[in-house]
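Weekly sync, protein design subgroup
Attendees: M.S., D.O., the rotation student, P.L. (late)

Item 1: inverse folding check
M.S. brought a backbone from last month's batch and wanted to see whether the design step gives back something sensible before we order anything. D.O. pointed out we never logged the input encoding, so this time it goes straight into the notes. Structure tokens as presented (222 positions):
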């Protein structure tokens, strides 16, 4: 298991951005340099957890519980076959492109050590948006991405430090439940009847996902 690339995006003006000023940092490109990883602060205030990476719409992106976004190279390869086009590392706006890790199969609360310093914790799956669709330029992309059910994972920073392409990735903690990123994503999108199961992940969940599950159970039981 290793980190294939660390990908950074700069603020860019585009017509498809959800940001009111039409800017986005979704176009991320690999860097060969070591990159500092840190907890950026609460959502709405903090942005990306990687130095040199721009997050423009902090109302919906970034913050401590979405500090880092990881995508498996294996999932990008599957999309390449389906779309009939090349998808370089960073194409989905991910900060980390991994190899040998089932990112969407990771457990909520699972912790990864990357290199010798950084420890990250899985919080939730990535919900696709209009900016993502505009960036990819694929029709019905939000629906297609959602249907695939392999969203990649957001992570919070437990131990800061530096990472770079080629670093080893080690799973150092797996919690005692069965709530994967894929399950949480499905529960939050197309199968809301699954939300009661998501509560087993507890406080490791992204706070918004936890609130959503609790609200569903309060209304519907579970």
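Designed sequence read out in the meeting:
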């Amino acid at each position: 298991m290793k980190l294939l690339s660390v990908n950074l995006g700069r603020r860019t003006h585009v017509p498809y951005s959800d940001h009111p000023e039409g800017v986005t940092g979704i176009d991320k490109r690999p860097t060969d340099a070591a990159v500092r990883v840190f907890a950026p602060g609460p959502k709405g205030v903090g942005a990306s957890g990687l130095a040199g990476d721009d997050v423009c719409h902090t109302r919906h992106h970034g913050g401590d519980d979405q500090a880092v976004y990881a995508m498996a190279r294996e999932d990008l390869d599957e999309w390449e076959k389906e779309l009939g086009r090349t998808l370089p590392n960073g194409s989905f706006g991910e900060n980390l492109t991994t190899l040998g890790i089932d990112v969407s199969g990771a457990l909520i609360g699972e912790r990864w050590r990357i290199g010798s310093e950084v420890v990250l914790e899985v919080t939730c799956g990535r919900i696709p948006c209009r900016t993502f669709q505009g960036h990819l330029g694929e029709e019905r992309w939000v629906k297609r991405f959602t249907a695939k059910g392999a969203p990649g994972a957001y992570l919070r920073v437990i131990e800061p430090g530096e990472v770079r392409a080629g670093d080893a990735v080690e799973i150092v903690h797996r919690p005692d439940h069965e709530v994967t990123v894929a399950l949480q994503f499905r529960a939050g999108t197309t199968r809301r009847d699954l939300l009661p199961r998501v509560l087993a992940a507890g406080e490791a969940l992204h706070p918004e996902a936890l609130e959503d599950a609790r609200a569903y159970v309060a209304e519907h039981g579970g």
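Discussion: The first helix runs from residue 73 to 83. DSSP finds six helices and twelve strands in the chain.
Action: P.L. to compare against the previous round before Friday.
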